[in-house]
Amino acid sequence: MICACRDPFMPRPNARIFGIGQNYRAHALELGKGIPTVPNVFLRPMSSYLPNGLALVIPPISRMMDWEVELAVIIGKAGRYIDAVHALEHVAGYCVAIDFTEREFQNKESQWTPGKIFDGTLPLGPALISAEHVPNLQALALSLTVNGHTMQQSSTSDMIFSVAELIAYLSQPTELQPGDVIITGTPSGVGHGRNPKVYLKSGDRVVATVAGLGSLDIRVD
């Protein structure tokens, strides 16, 4: 089933958005980090969700807004202490995400939260593709362009922790619920990892694509 509604899912008031940092080998290396031995988990509030069709508005206090194309997982069946072997049975479907991140605020402290909680910085879409229509989950090509220039191009095969492993890990401290979202990490090519560093500005156009899931086309205001 493909949900072609304006939003890829209807968020519950208490739904969680789980983010995973540095989950692609090449991305961890471009940031000068080692390969994580456990997932780096952070939470995004639902207020950071950007409904489909709206522009990314860069706040006046932001000087380092960056891009991150990601595969997003929408949980469809509740579960606690899930075994990785059965983890994908808990997935309703998948969609494209762009984890827009304010790097200056992210790097102000040891926790990543400040750079990840800006309102309207997490578009999801363009549709929810049901799990049975995504057979090669760990071999999906994904890419991101800014103003037509390719900035990120990789595959989910470069993930350090697979989608099944992430679901199993997150279900240990908390029961995953239908409507919960997991954004599974980004590949190399972010603006903050470049020399010189590059950040978004008003007038830019960002297009993120995951094979089989479609593209998000986001205007920057």
Summarize the structure.
This protein has 221 residues and is mostly beta strands. The protein has helices spanning 25-30, 103-106, 113-116, 163-170; strands at residues 2-3, 17-21, 40-44, 49-50, 65-66, 69-75, 91-98, 101-102, 122-130, 141-146, 149-155, 181-183, 205-210, 214-219.
Describe this structure in words.
There is one protein chain. With about 220 residues, the protein is mainly beta. It has one domain: Fumarylacetoacetase-like, C-terminal domain (Fumarylacetoacetate hydrolase, domain 2). Helices cover about 10% and strands about 30% of the residues. The chain has 4 helices and 14 strands. Strands 1, 2, 3, 4, 6, 7, 9 and 12 form an 8-stranded mixed sheet that branches. Strands 11-10-13-14 form a 4-stranded antiparallel sheet, with no helix packed on it. A two-stranded antiparallel sheet has the order 5-8. β10 and β11 form a beta hairpin.
